[in-house]
């Protein structure tokens, strides 16, 4: 079974984590969910989703306070971790090995076990501190993937934008998908 740990931190853009869970469920991918307390508030402010509905999308959910949960151990097998969105606080904790909660610990373990870690970092503008933390992690093999808009795919609405980013995350994990409006398809239509 293909298993992905999905964390939703408190940055704006909780919809990216939710859409990943929805599409992973459709694709038959097992997801293990961790939601920070700040993310719970962000979900209320930014979306029409109820927390219970998001939790049902995952195969299993763990409390961010449960530092003894399975994703905190290297012996717990999974094929990667996605933090969507990833706040600058979470980025900093991961970059500096500050594993004070399950999201940070699971990311730390993902790095040490040399598994794929993808961070959809959300902030603008970026400070030198943010950039240094991203560079530090990128040099360790972490995928730094801000959900930047692409226009070659001619998005019609926000849903198209979110699907494109979600599909690109799937690409990074080696998961075949039809969420991405690919460049060669766009060129053919022109």
From TrEMBL:
InterPro entries: Flavin_trans-like, Flavoprotein, UbiX-like. Keywords: Flavoprotein, FMN, Lyase, Prenyltransferase, Transferase. It is an enzyme of class 2 (transferase). The keyword Lyase applies. Signal peptide: none annotated. Residues 3-172 form the Flavoprotein domain. Its EC number is 2.5.1.129. It holds the Pfam family Flavoprotein. One of its GO terms (molecular function) is flavin prenyltransferase activity. Belongs to the UbiX/PAD1 family. PANTHER family: FLAVIN PRENYLTRANSFERASE, FLAVIN PRENYLTRANSFERASE PAD1, MITOCHONDRIAL. This is flavin prenyltransferase. It comes from anaerobic digester metagenome.
């Amino acid at each position: 079974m293909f298993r992905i740990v999905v964390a939703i931190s408190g940055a704006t853009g909780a919809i990216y984590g939710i859409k990943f869970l929805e599409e992973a469920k459709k694709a038959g991918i097992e997801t293990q969910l961790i939601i920070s307390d700040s993310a719970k508030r962000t979900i209320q402010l930014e979306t029409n989703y109820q927390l219970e509905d998001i939790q049902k999308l995952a195969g299993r959910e763990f409390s961010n306070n449960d530092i003894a949960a399975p994703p905190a151990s290297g012996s717990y097998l999974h094929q990667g971790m996605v933090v969507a969105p990833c706040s600058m606080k979470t980025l900093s904790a991961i970059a500096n090995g500050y594993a004070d909660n399950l999201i940070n610990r699971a990311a730390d373990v993902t790095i040490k076990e040399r598994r794929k870690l993808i961070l959809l970092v959300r902030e603008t503008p970026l400070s030198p501190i943010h950039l240094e933390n991203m560079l530090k992690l990128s040099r360790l093999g972490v995928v730094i993937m801000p959900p930047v808009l692409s226009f070659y795919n001619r998005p019609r609405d926000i849903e198209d934008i979110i699907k494109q980013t979600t599909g690109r995350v799937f690409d990074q994990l080696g998961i075949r998908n039809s969420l991405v409006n690919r460049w060669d398809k766009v060129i053919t239509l022109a």
